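Fold these two proteins, one after the other.
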Amino acid sequence: MASNKTLTKSSKIGFERITLVVDNTRFVVDPSQFVAHPDSMLGRMFGPGASSGASSITRPNEKGEFEVADGISANVFRAILDYYKTGMIRCPPSVAVSELREACDYLLIPFDARTIKCHNLRGLLHEISNEGAKSQFEDFLENLILPAMVASAQRGERECHIAVLADDDVVDWDDEFPPQTGEEHCQIIHSTPLQRFFKYIENRDVAKHVLKERGLKKIRLGIEGFPTYKEKVRQRTGARPEVIYSYVQRPFVKMSWEKEEARSRHVDFQCVRSKSITNLANVDGVDGSNEEAAAPYIPVNENANPSGSNNNNNNNAIGSVSVDHLANFNFRAPLQAFNRRPSDSSLAQDSRYLSGSSIKGNLSDDV
């Protein structure tokens, strides 16, 4: 075991082979092959700079082995080792091209048609297009999109809506009858290359990812109809003329750099005492503060016969109050009196008297 550790330590200078552990799989390699590619991660870890102490991540474990490429499968790493021998990587059929692409980005290995050989051309070209789209959009962002964003920011705005038109698109709006674009300050960029770039959904996804990396928020990209020039005016009797514009389908991009978008935007009004009448009982001059004084008094005969027969043979009476008296009675009660819940004793008493009455007529829900 001691001899193995000695060989492993001396291997950093390049005399012996080293053991790399990837995905619980051991790979015995010659570290001298990494010297030819000093810009890759393995070249930085085991190259000449590592022997002079420039690298702090090449420390072996207790067995003298180096654990590298965390998160990369053994099949992918086995294919990547061919890059240090032949300069090319052949993607295994069982490995997705996107997985190989992520491994190459992690190990700082160039991912292009000269380096990667793959049977799945669709997957290979898709990854190459993503890389090219990212580089192309960064150029569009600096030269075309950023100046429009700066113009919106100089007006105090914190978001920007940009319509991308072709170079030969003509925009001729009537000042008296402008189109309803939905945006008061819509920026317009005339660029046929950028308009073709946004034609693909994959390119819009790459552009959205780049904008997120640059710190922008509320990013929207898509295709919408944009009014270019006035076609005709339709006159209507007694109404405003209807202006018809010619629309073309063009890409748009919208983003925001507002920092306080999560704050509530409602207006906090100061609570003041209202001078209007809030108590309906005060309309007729009754003070609603004294509920007992404002409540109407209805005299009830405690000796009323609950069986429904009255000594005076008056069938239109409730206790000692007649129906005619109730019709002429002016009920005036505060609003709080209707909101109060009656007690159980009062409900029992009222039901006892009402059950003994013999008021004739039909009851309805009409108010």
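Now the second one:
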Amino acid sequence: MNIHNSMYVRFIGIIVLAAVGVIFLISSLPISDTCKCENPVERDIQHEQFHRSFKELSPSDKHKLAILVPFRDRFDELLRFAPHISRFLNRQRVPFHIFVLNQNDRYRFNRASLINAGFLLVKDQYDYIAMHDVDLLPLNDNLKYEYPKNGPLHISGPEFHPKYHYATFIGGILLLKIEHYQLLNGMSNKYWGWGLEDDEFYVRIKEAGLEVHRPRNITSGPDDTFLHIHDRLHRRRDTAKCFNQREVTRRRDRETGLNTLRYSLDSRRELTIDDVPVTVLNLNLECDKSQTPWCECDSKGDAKSRLETKSKS
């Protein structure tokens, strides 16, 4: 009899404990009047606070960079350039925008005049510019595209460039703040065809008392600091010299620059390349043939160019 009573008591105890457990579980479940679900308003506030924290890390007063890319018939290179430079600068958290300065006229390519035109079109919205070749891609993350407050910053220095190694070289990638480029009156407009416009610009920089700065503590060299994607066999450079071009373009130009540039903006196109926004400025440059007849090498100029090339060889 005692055994039966003991079993009965245990059975009752188990039932009581089970009932208490069920009641506890039911009371913890949300019901319509006491729902503990996430409040949509609070959730939106939390998301806004989360995104605001990123904005605080990238303040709106950071200097804005306009990347000026002189351009003609280089679309395959542009397709590689835009995504690459975007990833590179995003890692540095540099606010930037790419402007492709597309020469739309019939004259020979004029890199310097394109940069002058691009500068005039962006100078009021940006703090500094990068004169950037489309075929030169930076690989070393220690190449900082920082605001060049103390003077021109030459990213592609001669000790790192894949091809050019002379001390006064400032081509490839050069950064200047807006005030300094304005002070120099930009670049010379006399350089139709390829080459030498950077060398003349170097003289302008030195005469203005500015010092060219270059990245420091770069451990890579000419073979692995940049990727040079220009195919010289597929796209030959226009190195012809006609009329008295060779003589004139080897002197300091004190006549032309930003204040003498003649151009028109044919159209402006916005496009994206692999989600990277790019602005294409289609530019028509004007040529005063009384000053620079070599903007078009006619038969007379071509004949002279061939004679110069033959005598040089």
